[in-house]
Amino acid sequence: EWSSPAFQQLSGVTQTCATNKTVGWDNMAYFCYPFTLEMFFTQGDESEDSLPQWPVLYFEVLSLDFWQRYRVEGYGSLVLPASPGLHMLTIPTWRPVELGTVAELRRFFIGGSPELEDITYVRIPSTFRGERLSRFGFRTETTGSVTFRLYCLQQSKAFLETSALRQRMQSVLDRLGGFSQQSSVYNVLEAFQRARRRMQEARESLPQDLISTAASTV
Fold first, then answer.
1. Best CA proximity match to 116, nearest among 149, 73, 157
2. Helix, strand, coil tally for the chain in percent (to 5)
3. How far is CA 153 from the centre of its chain?
4. Does the keyword Cytoplasm apply (predicted)?
5. How far apart are the first and last CA of the chain?
6. Is 99 helix (H, G, I), strand (E, B) or coil?
7. CA 101, 103, 105: angle at the middle one, nearest 5?
8. 6 and 58 part of one domain
9. Same domain, yes or no, for 128 and 193?
């Protein structure tokens, strides 16, 4: 249910970077390779049980020595973050290995190593249609990690509709609050007027001599 523009490039190769910095016992290579990716999601099944599967980024790390010999150093994958903002993700890598000393000597002196024909095998192969995926007999070893700095931006019409609805509801509440305050003031004034009228009626019903005596006493 994900799509991308026709001009969108979904794969690429970084530049070669020398590991001239060491952190602890590990050699560090700062590729600083920027890339942009734009994806569109179309909701097909709107049931509550259906959750969208976010796109996955697959990557492969290669090494190049002085004699221009390539070696596979690791594979990895990461699921793009589902929340917007800045994300720093460090993904561990692994590579397939062959048993035996001869294979390691061949890798060291000649170069080359076992590679994956389908990079989606890092997670779930694209050709897999079963219920359980068995990797029994597939030998690997951990090699290192790759750090990604991702800036995610999300746009959705639903977000705009929700924001507009929230603003409309807030304005309605403000108006209702103003009306309630105004009506309370009117109620107080009306109660005061009623009390004043009752007081005047009670004063007029009293005898005049009693009113004059009370006034002279005061």
1. 73
2. 35, 25, 40
3. 8
4. yes
5. 90
6. coil
7. 70
8. yes
9. no
For 74, the 3-state DSSP assignment is: strand
- Lowest average pLDDT, out of 42-51, 54-63, 106-115, 209-218, goes to 209-218
Q: Which domain holds residue 213?
A: 180-217
Q: Are residues 23 and 96 in the same domain?
A: yes
Q: How many domains does the chain have?
A: 2
- Cα separation of 158 and 103, whole Å? 56
pLDDT digits (tens, 9 = 90+) for 92-136: 999 988 887 888 888 888 887 888 888 888 888 878 888 888 888
Same domain, 81 and 34: yes
pTM of the predicted protein model: 0.65
pLDDT at residue 164, as a whole number: 59
> Nearest-CA neighbor of 72 among 123, 113, 105?
113
Per DSSP, helices labelled H in the chain are 101-109, 157-205, 208-217
Together in a domain, 160 and 189: no
Shared-domain flag, residues 147 and 40? yes
Give yes or no: residues 118 and 159 share one domain. yes
CA distance 101 to 36: 42
Q: Which residues contact 190 (CB under 8 A, 6 or more apart)?
A: none
- Dihedral sign, Cα of residue 37, residue 93, residue 127, residue 42: negative
Contact 95, 141 (CB under 8 A): yes
Distance separating alpha carbons of residues 33 and 147, to the nearest angstrom: 11
